[in-house]
Write a structure and sequence with these properties.
Blueprint (H helix, E strand, L loop, with lengths): L1 E6 L8 E6 L8 E11 L1 H8 L13 E9 L11 E5 L9 E5 L4 E2 L6 H21 L7 E4 L5 H12 L3 E6 L2 H9 L4 E4 L5 H8 L5 E6 L6 H6 L1 E9 L13 H5 L4 E3 L3 H4 L3 H17 L6 E6 L3 H9 L6 E5 L1
Parallel strand pairs: 8-9, 8-11, 9-10, 11-12, 12-13, 14-15
Antiparallel strand pairs: 1-2, 3-4, 3-6, 3-15, 4-5, 5-7
Helix pairs in contact: 2-3, 2-9
Family: Belongs to the zinc-containing alcohol dehydrogenase family. Quinone oxidoreductase subfamily.
Catalytic activity: 2 a quinone + NADPH + H(+) = 2 a 1,4-benzosemiquinone + NADP(+)
EC number: 1.6.5.5
């Protein structure tokens, strides 16, 4: 038996209930995990609200760190007692125990504790595919990163700084501006006081940036396009303000033969080799000290609804962890 947060209908945080569930034995190619720490991410809100529909009833959660309790038939890479982490699905992380396919798990190296692992896997691997694959940022380039004080943003600012990249970040408060600067942001724009398009153009002497990373969505999409230089790329990887509205592809031509991509982590870690490569580069950054993971908010699993409220209200910075 395991306690878990489960939703029976889409809606607000109130639809999440703490329930006791029966956990089956691991089948072929699966392991039973005892969860040690669970990462909370904005995609969990999308699943809860139905923006990204999931089959109901469902246990939310895409990320966690755990210890192997039992192994199923055919499992040779893991054994009971191994420390592992995962991100990107299948959903079901908001639980004390769960069964997972072994090919979606990575062993945790010494030097990375459970809480840190649960804070970094989804957000850190997201940064890896965004800056090393979706658009491979080069030293001396300047990029625009919206929500620079969020969990993904803080990791990205540090990683990009280690590569010699100049980061222009947007935030909503002075406190978040200071946090982004402390984590490697070169220039911070408080969008509540400044027009971010005008400020980006000013900072780049009118040229714009080659790439914009936008997890905000509807509220920033048009402005993000206006920040790009000719043939620039907008990487839209989230919808914190709502889904981007339909638009004419002709706009991209009018604004300078621009490109737009809408990637996700699953598309860049679909194979076992892709997953290990992505996680491996993240581990290297963290173990080297180039990227420091800060868990700013910890909630008991039973208070997952309050954690969702705080994240949606933009009261949080950095990573959020639930403890089962």
């Amino acid at each position: 038996m395991s306690q878990a947060i489960r939703i029976h209908r889409h809606g607000g945080p109130e639809v999440m209930r703490l329930e006791t569930l029966e956990i089956g034995k691991p089948g072929e190619g699966e392991v039973l995990l005892r969860q040690r720490a669970i990462g909370l991410n904005y995609i969990d809100i999308y699943h809860r609200t139905g923006l990204y529909p999931v089959a109901l009833p469902a246990v939310p959660g895409m990320e966690g760190a755990a210890c192997v309790e039992a192994v199923g038939r055919g499992v040779v890479d893991l054994q009971v007692g191994d420390r592992v982490a995962y991100a990107g699905g299948p959903i079901g992380a908001y639980a004390q125990m769960r069964v997972m396919p072994v090919d979606r798990l990575v062993k945790l190296p010494e030097g990375i504790d459970d809480c840190t692992a649960a804070s970094m896997m989804l957000q850190g691997m997201t940064v890896q595919y965004l800056i090393r694959q979706a658009y491979r940022v080069s030293p001396s380039e300047t990029v625009l990163w919206h929500a620079a004080a969020g969990g993904v943003g803080l990791i990205a600012c540090q990683w990009l700084r280690s590569l010699g990249v100049t980061v222009i970040g947007t935030v909503g408060t002075d406190e978040k501006a200071a946090l982004a600067m402390a984590n490697g942001c070169s220039h911070v724009i408080n969008y509540r006081r400044e027009h971010f398009v005008e400020r980006v153009r000013e900072l780049t002497d009118g040229a714009g940036v080659p790439v914009v990373y936008d997890s905000v969505g509807k509220d920033t999409f048009e402005g993000s396009l206006d920040c790009l230089q000719r043939r620039g790329l907008l990487v839209s990887f989230g919808n914190a303000s709502g889904a981007v509205l339909p638009f004419s592809l002709g706009v991209l031509a009018q604004k300078g033969s621009l490109y737009v991509t809408r990637p996700n982590l699953a598309g860049y870690t679909a194979t076992r080799d892709e997953l290990l490569s992505c996680a491996g580069e993240l581990f290297e950054q963290v173990l080297s000290g180039a990227v420091k993971i800060t868990t700013n908010h910890i909630y008991p699993l039973a208070e997952a609804a309050q954690a969702h409220r705080d994240l949606e209200a933009r009261k949080t910075t950095g990573s959020i962890v639930l403890l089962p």
